[in-house]
Amino acid sequence: MTSAAERRDRILERIARAASLAKRDPGDVQLIAVSKGRSIEEIEPLIESGQRDFGENRVQEALAKWPALLARHPDLRLHAIGRLQSNKAAEAVRLFDTIHSLDRPSLLHALVKQAEESGRRPPVYVQVNIGEEEQKGGCAIGDVGDLVRAIRASPLPLAGLMAIPPLGLEPSPFFALLAELARRHDVAGLSTGMSSDFEAAVMLGATAVRVGTALFEDQ
Question: What is the pLDDT of residues 97-115, one digit of tens each?
Answer without folding.
Answer: 999 999 999 999 999 999 9
